[in-house]
Amino acid sequence: MRERLIEISREIVAHGKAGTIPQTPDIMRVPAEHYCDEARFALEMERVFKRVPLMLAMTAEIKNNGDYKAMEVIGTPIVIARGDDGRARAFVNMCSHRGAQLMPVGRGSAKRFTCPYHAWSYSIDGRLTGVFREREFGDVDRSCNGLTALPTTERAGLIWVTLNPKSTLDMDAFLAGYDEALAHFGFENWYFFADRTLEGPNWKIAYDGYMDFYHLPILHKNSFGPDMFSQAMYHAWGPHQRVSTPNAALADVPEEEWTDEALLRGVWTIFPHISIAEFNGGGRGVMISQLFPGETVSRSYTIQNYLMETKPADDIVPQAVEQFAFLERVVRDEDYATGIKQQRALATGAKSHVMFGRNEAGGQHFHRFLAELLTVEDEGLDRFFAMHAQSNAVPSKPNGATKARARGAR
Q1: Which DSSP category does 49 fall into?
Q2: Are residues 210 and 227 in the same domain?
Q3: Model confidence, pTM
Q4: Residue 246 carries which DSSP code?
Q5: Are residues 256 and 371 located together in one domain of the fold?
């Protein structure tokens, strides 16, 4: 996988030196109602968020045996825990007795999960271990009354969970080797610094922004500055994408000296709801944004997680706090504030569609993939992802590229 990262960097350097950017053959038009229609939103919940793996936790959050994280995702209460065997598992956060929620939302460490309603208890790996006054209650078959397990995979320091407990989706087909690329970050050894939750517009409006460099020098001119790059290159692993900018900076560095950090620059998006962006403020860090649809078509919420490569020293902590606060302000007051107004405008029906330009291949790839996925029945899901794992539909080669403005091609 390092070789592919090197190949991508060669392309980035080539475009940077030539002053070019890759483009798609045509502008893509997406119906405006896709952001507003309640029926389509319900279909997205059933055929996307409730049946594909979602990246719900980072290894750094539950590093030690007994650590857990409880959260609610698309109306499903979930608890993710690291067992005594070191394995991460996820369960529906619900007692087998009468359905009470076992653990409150948050993180912690526990020897067992105990129901606050009737004190039934479960081991950290989900087994029913105690029934309050069982002699009076009646015989309970503990072997089949443990917590409901959810398919869970931990790779590259990230933990994926599928909300459908019966899912058998092949993770290799779903990830398409993307986890091997992400593994170069070494997130399993990073430090979890903090998190915050923001409200936003329709989840696709929010997600569009994470794959879009076109807006950076405009919308963020007063925060990041007007000299931000606006051109982008996209590389896909199935539905997942890396977004980077044409850059000739590595041209003068021998390839054998290209570091993992240099090879990983850009924004990494994990379908359908994750963005990973690297920043430096008090040390190397990444903001991992977990985007979730809200209760209605017009709302979403995003959990911003800030991970740092190493635990910051006491004198560095204020810089890291300020960096994270700055990123929160930018997303809340610029990206999402704009997106919420965009949502209202689209809901008027005044425009029949939105457009993704030839320079916005990432958005085109996402919406095309999403539209296809919504038509796939459960029995065809493995085949669908396996097919896409074999192809890269996002243009990246210099052939047919157009000349970029000097500012964006640096």
Answers
A1: I
A2: yes
A3: 0.94
A4: -
A5: yes
